[in-house]
Amino acid sequence: MECQLQSCAYDHGVRETAPPRRLTAKGRATRARIVAAAAELVFAHGVARTGIDDVRREAGVSASQLYHYFADKDELMRAVIAHQTDGILEVQRPLLDHLDSFAALEQWRDMLVALQEERHCTGGCPIGSIAAELADEDPEARADLVAGFERWEAPIREGLARMRERGDLRADADTDALALALLAALQGGLLLTQTRRVTAPLRIALDTVLAQIRTQAA
Amino acid sequence: MECQLQSCAYDHGVRETAPPRRLTAKGRATRARIVAAAAELVFAHGVARTGIDDVRREAGVSASQLYHYFADKDELMRAVIAHQTDGILEVQRPLLDHLDSFAALEQWRDMLVALQEERHCTGGCPIGSIAAELADEDPEARADLVAGFERWEAPIREGLARMRERGDLRADADTDALALALLAALQGGLLLTQTRRVTAPLRIALDTVLAQIRTQAA
DNA sequence: GCGATTATGGAGTGTCAACTCCAATCTTGC
DNA sequence: GCAAGATTGGAGTTGACACTCCATAATCGC
After folding, report:
1. Which residue has the higher pLDDT, A119 or B20?
2. How far apart are CA B175 and CA A204, in angstroms?
């Protein structure tokens, strides 16, 4: 509840609940290994179907270590949300920071579709799937998810705003709404792609919003 | 695996796994009560967090009854998917069957937004949330989810097609793609609305695709 | 009405999950 | 180098959960 606004990538577990005030280099590495293992398992099977013991085994640590770094499963899941948000931004970063041309938007769409193709359409959105599972169940997780989506949406919003300022889009184009619609199309497209096991829904959902953005060209 | 194509609303549990070949009137009522209770709990808390015992208690039946009508939890969840799809179609039915004018599309959007408003933005899509949880985990559930989405998408697709045939939309408008984009916007909008607890994402996501449909007016 | 089938009650079982405890070992600041 | 504190191992506990079993009561076809 205290550090949602700053970008806080890794120091998420350091709140009043987490016992260790200072982490040694080895400790940080162990903690990171736990979070990475948990993130992978949650991405593959969801929060509820990911057992602490699975994480423990995958990360190669003992139970006491896990509870040394995280007060409980909920706190670990919050660390996973932060980790996955970092991962999304890192992977999309070069493109995401320059979504200020039609060519860049199309490249971004191609990248997203190609990624799902590689995964054979399994797995949805790394944070969207968690949101579906936890948004109504864990208020703290919800807050972190809101922050995660915001970190994702911001560069999209800013890219479209630059297009408008530069004169590529009409002065009265609602770029904030278009950015939000793009994110929603991505989420919905991913869900349908995951369910139907074909990339068409994702591609078509994104293309439809991109077409709408193009109608706003100046 | 055998009855995805016909509309099969209620006779879903009657496959080789379900012991009872014939259900008496009372039996059907009990089975329906179980499915309804399960659907409500799953909608509120997800599949994994819904215990058989919770369903049992909520429906007012004993454990043996539950396993008399359903081979296991997976089969019950498949019945829930069918039940929720029926529910979605029933609620939206009057509108859904006549989505063949801009006015009707807007009325439908208003209804969807109002519904989430009533729910204070809690709960996502009755089948979308299940899809996020089960699509990669249970192949049979995935098949039923695909069928469910198709039953939902079909009337949207057909409404837009009628608009094109009637000349409201251009002859080269890709109404199938627009219908799919609308469903994706709905799913993504619901997820973001559920997470952020405001209806704006849902409304904006739908409005953006509606605007794109309007650009295809003849 | 009567035999066969279906519907119900409720106690019981085995497994697995999250989490705890305590003792032992490294690391670090000084 | 030496305490203080950080890090680790692994067995143990507690509860929840999906599912089973067997006996009894209702219902249906004829």
Report:
1. A119
2. 11
Hey, how many other C-beta atoms are within 10 angstroms of the C-beta on A70? 24
Interval B86-112: pLDDT, tens: 999 999 999 999 999 999 999 999 999
- Residue from B85, B82, B185 nearest A190 by CA: B185
DSSP state of A9: -
Which nucleotides in chain C lie less than 7 Å from some protein C-beta?
5-12, 16-23, 26-28
The verdict on a CB contact (< 8 Å) between A209 and B181 is yes
The domains of chain B, with CATH numbers, are 25-214 (1.10.357.10)
ipTM of the complex: 0.90
- Residues of A within 8 A of B187 (CB-CB) are 187-188, 191-192
Burial annotation B168-206 (CB, 10 A radius, 16+ → b, else e): bbeeebbbebbbbbbbbbbbbbbbbbbbbeebebbbbbb
Closest CA to A74 of B52, B49, B198: B49
Residue B11 CB in 7 A reach of strand D: no
